[in-house]
Amino acid sequence: MAYVVLARKYRPQAFEDVVAQDHVTRTLRHAVVNGRIGSGYLFCGPRGTGKTTVARILAKAVNCANGPTDKPCGVCSSCLEITSGSSLDVLEIDAASNTGVDDVRQLRENIRYLPTGGKKRIYIIDEVHRLSGSAFDALLKTLEEPPPHVIFVFATTEPLKVPDTILSRTQRFDFRRVSVEDLMAHLRKIATSEGLTIDDAALLLLARKADGSVRDSLSLLDQIAAYAGETIGEQDVVKSLGLVDRTFLMDYTAAVAAADRKQVLRLTRSLFENGIDAADFTAELLDHLRTLLIIRTDSDAVSTLSCGAEELAELQKQAQFFEVGDILRLMKILVDLNGDLKSGLDERLLLEVAGVKMAELESTVRLEDILARLNAGESVQLPQPASSKPDQMRGSDFFPPTPPGKAAAPTVAKTVVEPTGLAANLQYAGRNLNLPQVQAGWDSFLALLKQSNPMLASQLRMGEVRAVQDNQIQVMFYSSGEASRQLVLKPESQSIIVRALRDHFRALVTIRFDIDQTKDHPAQAVEKVGQNRIDPRKLVEQSPRLKFLVDKVDGEIIGIKKLPSQE
Hints:
It is a single chain. The protein has 5 domains: 6-174, P-loop containing nucleotide triphosphate hydrolases (Rossmann fold, 3-Layer(aba) Sandwich); 180-241, Helicase, Ruva Protein, domain 3 (Orthogonal Bundle), CATH 1.10.8; 246-360, Up-down Bundle (Zinc Finger, Delta Prime, domain 3), CATH 1.20.272.10; 390-398 and 409-516, GMP Synthetase, Chain A, domain 3 (2-Layer Sandwich), CATH 3.30.300.180; 528-566, no CATH class. Helix content is 49%, strand content 11%. The strands form 4 sheets. Strands 2-3-4-1-5 form a 5-stranded parallel beta sheet, covered by helices on one side. The chain has helices at residues 6-9, 22-33, 51-63, 77-84, 101-110, 133-144, 164-167, 180-193, 200-210, 214-228, 234-241, 246-257, 261-273, 278-297, 309-319, 324-340, 347-360, 367-377, 390-393, 435-452, 454-460, 482-488, 491-505, 536-542, 544-553; strands at residues 40-44, 90-94, 121-126, 150-156, 171-174, 197-198, 231-232, 412-417, 463-469, 472-477, 510-516, 528-529, 532-533. It comes from candidate division GN15 bacterium. Pfam families: DNA_pol3_delta2, DNA_pol3_gamma3, DNAX_ATPase_lid.
């Protein structure tokens, strides 16, 4: 027996089987039950949402041997003929192939004949917007006063091209795109029926790719099943359909945010080496930026996004890299690129130019924000050095005790450093930095600072950049980095660091130093003696000579390493 594709095998045969079009099926069922069946219907909506399918179900509901009924039996001769497409009383006409006025005149001649076996003759005209203007005119009188045994059902994906004279003579039903959640549920049910094992991540990719079309989703599932067999994973979907991996989109967006032109070009080269279509990548990146725009604009709409908790956390983090204006301008570049890709020019060249253009894009800054920042900075003074007793800042009076049953949060002591002399840096006031930009340029900044002050550069290297918000850079030191933190908190050190930061990043930045008591520095080597850890700070306190040496060089012990002879 010949294989039947899933889109045909699982085509709905009753109103209740139609996916996510309850507003249409409910109205039609009530019309059939109450005897209020119209003479003309217009079904509008995207492809694959059930327009022709519902027209066939309506025809069965009207002509069923038990009907009219909202639950056609599906086993009588009329139902079976409509299902197989051989019914003489249900005629499906493709308007794309029968566009002329002569075709409509022939139809007008045929509608005089009574049904052969059913109660009504149903004319289903697909893609009705393709009819010519004269064909529409020839149809008007018949549509307004059709014979009592005739029902017209028009289906179209472009209702705006249907003349108002036709719209006014029909009942219009708008079919909606099927949501990702409904598509996933439908695909999961069919996969179970077919004996396929498919994970949620793969279902999510399929549902997204289908773009609201049930037919497209089943065709894709057919294709994936042929590629992967009975067990389907996320990577099977990515490879077989040539999709853009979500991680790739994240990396590309991070490279754009960091203004890393080299990385953007490397990723573009990788895109073409893996055979991913440029138009598909542009569409995926546009959708990715749309998600960031929603997160950045309306935090309440986050729950409507179709993504897992882990992916959502990454998206929320990445959304903070851009202002709303930045995302809008990036999307404008991609929209222009989408049009340019249809021009026939070299796709790789167009993608590389657009990528570099996005990486070169300066951050959006409003004039009132610049003035507010400058006005606020005129009266800000450098803070006094922090207390020489760090424990006072990390004590129970500074942080409330952890509630019972909850894990202790990282203990953080905060100091915010604001620069002086903002008027001298007015040329930097219009640039906003984000975390990827600072992280990408941090090593080169430390190299620059090392030329003028090697000691400060080495102390800053003991910390890591954790966040950037409103041009304030947060540097986090680890549990053993209190000495380094105290050193960079000195007023003269702060002045040097902030001046170097502005010169390097060309932005009006501030810096803040925190300490995380719950983490050790990655380079810190700690040796265990029995079950006890050796604490370098206690070792310094117990050895006056070692303490003198550390104070003399203004240094810090970050770990203890066992000699080879002791191993």
